[in-house]
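INFO  loader      accepted 1 record
INFO  loader      residues=148
INFO  predictor   begin
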Amino acid sequence: MKDASYDHAQHLAERVRDTMLATDRVAQTLGMQVSAISPGHASVTMVVREDMLNGFGSCHGGLLATLADMAFAYACNSYNEMTVASGFDVDLLGPGKLGETLTADARVVSQGARMGVYDITVTNPSGERIAVFRGRSYRLKGKQVVPT
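INFO  predictor   done
INFO  writer      dumping tokens
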């Protein structure tokens, strides 16, 4: 059974998601959806469209990194402390293909008072990893995403 503090943290993460999505022009333009969120975790999906393909007919690597970065942003901010990226590394392992729904799943590895580390895996519909991303975050102490 989940306790009231878990329910509060989950509800807060959902409010943060809704607030961020309302003004997230990149997510809106690229058709990204936050399919799951909880404290320290977020999953974001994106359907590969024709205008996202590179010269070889696969999803542009920069868009794979953007998808992972989006999941990273939502996972970092899910605690309702405004958090920004301080850096990331990404490895592209395979192609995203036209029409596929890609999923970026972000999970907290370590979260201190200011600095955090998150691992993000991007998979295709078959569950194959096509990118891995490690993000480093920095919390802006005292600044909330949504009022509590």
